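User: hey, got a sec? need Hamartin folded
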Amino acid sequence: MRPREEDAILNEISAITATEAKPVEFRGGFDPPFYQSSENLSGSRKSQSVVSNTAGQLSTTEALTSFLDQYGLKGSIICTCCITSCCYEPFKRQQHALRNGHFLWKVIKAAALVELNAAMNDQLRLQTLKLSLQEDQAKHCLFQEEYDGMVAQLHSQNCQLQHEWEEYYNQSQELKTKLEDCCDVIRDLRSKLKKIQQMCHTELLLSQVSQKFSNNRWTS
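Assistant: Yep! Here you go:
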């Protein structure tokens, strides 16, 4: 019967300390209870499970006082252990929450740094692209100026050649007209020369005939 009575007393002690005892204040950081060995932690967990399983079996404080009178120091030690264990669990959860909060903050900060790094890399790539675009635009402007200059030069040369061709064409037309006039003059001169040759030939024949006639006349 003693183990059952001890379990019941432990349950009653935990109920009393949960309602009447003040919360224990711990120092900042991880207190020594957090660094307990696994055996102590397992023992405290076993005692808590035993206390929770035997809850509600004893409801009077007379059994508690008689048990404390009977067992004395052992009961007070068990009571102190139970109080410490009950106070340590919220503290442990709080410390875990703080540590998880720190870890979460570090993760968020690392994610923010990663995003910032990616944004900076994107900004650097954008700046590089802007510089390359400006260089390409400057080269394009230079090529455009050279192209415009070459086009203007070729246009002026084309205009000059067109003007020279027009002058040459006009001169060729004039020479063609003069050639046609010269051909007409030569044709006229040839016709006149032919007429003159015919007249000369006729006169020669007449002179010969007259000469023969005169000779015949003198002979007769």
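Quick note: The chain is about 85% helix and 0% strand. Let me know if you need anything else on Hamartin.
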